[in-house]
Every structure is written in structure tokens, then in C-alpha cells.
């Protein structure tokens, strides 16, 4: 199989994008280990992570939130049990210091 240098460069670039995506998934979705050892378990866990990534991206896009997907995920995880609407959580709060907000939430919740 003969490939032109431009095709090799294009394929390498696409491969690198996939590598960066999986690195991001591991870092931000906290995939430190897999739930199971067989192929099906690994696929299910990766599909769940990818679906959640895209759902968060869609939410951020539709609500026109000026935050990274990581910041949106952090905001949603902080307010997981809150009764506030997602739109309010993402647009009306200033999430510059996530650790500070987590501490405040724990105080409010009584934990």
C-alpha cells in the first residue's frame, strides 16, 4: 500500500486528535480503571463517557455557555442534587473557583 506524504501527515494528525480525545476523557471523566475486564465492559464504559461528553457539549452549545466542557461538567457535578434548572446553574453562577463552591455546598447541605 503506497501513501503520499500528505496522506500520511493527514492520518497522523487525525490519529493524534483521537489520542488527545482519549487523554481528555481519562482526565475529566475520571476513568482510572475499567468496570470490567472483557471487551464489552470496556466498550460500555467508553460509550457512556463519550455520550456524557456530547450531552454536555450540546447543553453548553444550546445554552450558549461561555465555559469549557470541563467547567460545565464541574458545575453540573456540584449541583447534581440541587433543584435549580440546568440553565440557571450554568448561566447565573460564577464558577471561577470550583473548590470554594464545593465547600459552600457542603456547608449548605449540612454535611
Q: Could you describe the 3D structure shown?
A:
The protein is an all-alpha fold. It has a domain at 33-109. Helices cover 68% and strands 0% of the residues. The protein contains 5 helices and no strands. The termini are far apart.
Can you summarize this structure?
This protein has 111 residues and is mainly α.
Radius of gyration: 18 Å
Share in β-strands = under 5%
Secondary structural class: mainly alpha
How much helix is in the residues?
A: 55-70%
Total strand segments = 0
Q: What is the CA-CA span between the terminal residues? A: 63 Å
N-to-C series of helices and strands:
HHHHH
Shape assignment? flat
Give the number of helices: 5
Biggest sheet, open or closed, and with what strands and sense?
A: none
Query: What average pLDDT do the residues reach?
Result: 77
The low-pLDDT segments are none
Q: How is the secondary structure organized here?
A:
Elements: H1 5-28, H2 39-62, H3 69-78, H4 86-91, H5 98-109
Summary keywords:
111 residues; mainly alpha; flat; single chain
